[in-house]
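Exercise: predict the fold of this chain.
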Amino acid sequence: MAGPCSCHYTTFDLSKGGMVVSGAATTDLPQVRLEIEDGDIYATGIDGLVYGYRNNLRDGTPIEAATEE
């Protein structure tokens, strides 16, 4: 379980894909897909729609990771 969220006092069940258990939220939490490669963790996608967006793409191009200079 996670919550209650301080923004809208909703409790989510993370063991059930971020499902709303109680509170004001109208959608479940989106889940970030992760992969581990050579000890590094990468976000490879999102399951579920991010609230407030029609799709989860950013102009259809991958978002580059920040690099240190």
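Check your answer against the key: The radius of gyration is 15 Å.
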